[in-house]
Design goal:
2 domains; 15% strand; 332 residues; single chain; ATP hydrolysis activity; ATP binding; 49% helix; Rossmann fold; alpha/beta; P-loop_NTPase; Helicase, Ruva Protein, domain 3
C-alpha cells in the first residue's frame, strides 16, 4: 500500500506525540514499580496491541501492584477477581435476577459482574475450574458476554491481565490451549536484582510511598491502538515473523530439533500477536517502524505459551526458552 508524503508526515507526527505520552506514562509507573522496566514495557505493549496478558511469577513480585498501577496510569477503570476453585461463571460475568415492580409485574434484570470494566485482573487464574476459566473466553475474544441468551457488550477498550503462580501447582487447573492462545503474551516476572531490591526496600518501608498518577485515558488508549495498527512494517520484519512461525511448527520446520521435540507449534494468531506487539514495542521506544530485532526480543513472550514440547524432549532437557531464542536468531 502506497502512503502519500502528507499521510506519512501526519503518521510520524502522531507517533512522535504518542512516544512522548508513553514516556510520561512509563515515568509515572516507575514511581511505584521499581526494577521491572522490561515487564512494564511488555505489559504496555499488550494494552497498545489491544490484547490480553498472562503475568507469571512467584508470589510477592508485585504482579497485582503492577496491574493496578497500569490501570491508574492508563486511566482504565479496573476490577480484580480472585480465582478460587469454588468460583462460578456468574461470579465473573454477572447474572439475571427476578424483580417485581410496584404494579406486581415480574421481570428479569441483568446484574453485570466484575468483567464489565476496562482492565480486569484475573488473579491466580489457574486456580479456578475449567468451566469458570472458559467463561472468560468469549469476553477475551469477542468483547461481549452472553447470559441467558442475551448479549451484553463490554466497555472498550477491554483487557484482561491474568496472574499465575508457576511454583505451587497443587489445587490448580492448567489453562487449556484455546485459552492460552487468547493471551497475546506470557510475561515472566523475575526476582529483582540486588540494586533494585535495595531501592524497593527504601521506597516502600518509609513513612511515605511514592504514588503513580493518571497520564492517559481510555479514549487516548483507543487512539494509540489505532496508531499501532497504522504503523508500517517493512519486508525484512515481516519475513522475520513468517520465518519464525515456519521454523517453530513441527510440520513445516527445517529444524530437526523442532520436528522431533515440539508437540504442537504456534498458529496464525501468534503471527497476528507478534505483528502488533513489535509495532507497539517500537512505538514505546520512540521508533516509527519495528525491526527484526523487535521480533527477536518478543519471540519468547509471544510464542512460549503457544508451543509444547514432547515428553521425550523434556526428558532430554530441552527448554522452550532456549529453543525459541535460537529460532528467533535464525529467523532475524
Amino acid at each position: 500500500m502506497t502512503v502519500s508524503k502528507e499521510d506519512a508526515r501526519a503518521l510520524e507526527h502522531r507517533a512522535d506525540r504518542a512516544a512522548e505520552r508513553l514516556a510520561e506514562a512509563k515515568g509515572s509507573i516507575r514511581k511505584t514499580i521499581i526494577g521491572l522496566d522490561e515487564v512494564v514495557e511488555r505489559a504496555l505493549a499488550v494494552i497498545l496491541s489491544g490484547g490480553h496478558g498472562l503475568l507469571v511469577g512467584a508470589p510477592g513480585l508485585a504482579k497485582t501492584k503492577l496491574v493496578h498501577t497500569l490501570a491508574v496510569v492508563t486511566g482504565l477503570d479496573d476490577k480484580r477477581v480472585q480465582f478460587t476453585p469454588d468460583l462460578m461463571p456468574a461470579d465473573i460475568l454477572g447474572s439475571e435476577v427476578l424483580e417485581e415492580s410496584e404494579g406486581g409485574k415480574r421481570a428479569f434484570r441483568f446484574l453485570p459482574g466484575p468483567v464489565f470494566c476496562r482492565l480486569l485482573m484475573a488473579d491466580e487464574i489457574n486456580r479456578a475450574s475449567p468451566r469458570t476459566q472458559a467463561a472468560l473466553l468469549q469476553a477475551m475474544q469477542e468483547g461481549f458476554v452472553t447470559v441467558a441468551g442475551a448479549r451484553h457488550d463490554l466497555p472498550r477498550p477491554f483487557h484482561v491481565l491474568a496472574t499465575q503462580n508457576p511454583i505451587e501447582q497443587e489445587g490448580t487447573y492448567p489453562l487449556p490451549e484455546a485459552q492460552l492462545d487468547r493471551f497475546l503474551m506470557q510475561i515472566d516476572v523475575p526476582y529483582p536484582s540486588r540494586e533494585d531490591e535495595r531501592a524497593i526496600l527504601l521506597a516502600t518501608t518509609g513513612v511515605e510511598e511514592a504514588q503513580s498518577h493518571t497520564v492517559l485515558s481510555a479514549e487516548e488508549i483507543l487512539d494509540l491502538q489505532t496508531l499501532v495498527r497504522a504503523m508500517p512494517v517493512g519486508e525484512e520484519t515481516l519475513n522475520a515473523v513468517l520465518a519464525l512461525l515456519e521454523r517453530a511448527r513441527p510440520d513445516t520446520s527445517p529444524d530437526g530439533e523442532v520436528k522431533d521435540g515440539v508437540a504442537w507449534g504456534p498458529g496464525p494468531r501468534a503471527g497476528q500477536a507478534l505483528m502488533l506487539a513489535v509495532r507497539a514495542r517500537a512505538l514505546l521506544q520512540g521508533r516509527l517502524a519495528p525491526s527484526s530485532a523487535d521480533v527477536a526480543a518478543l519471540a519468547e513472550p509471544v510464542l512460549k505459551h503457544r508451543m509444547a514440547l514432547t515428553f521425550a524432549a523434556k526428558a532430554d532437557g530441552l527448554k522452550l526458552e532456549t529453543l525459541i531464542a535460537r529460532l528467533a536468531a535464525e529467523a532475524a
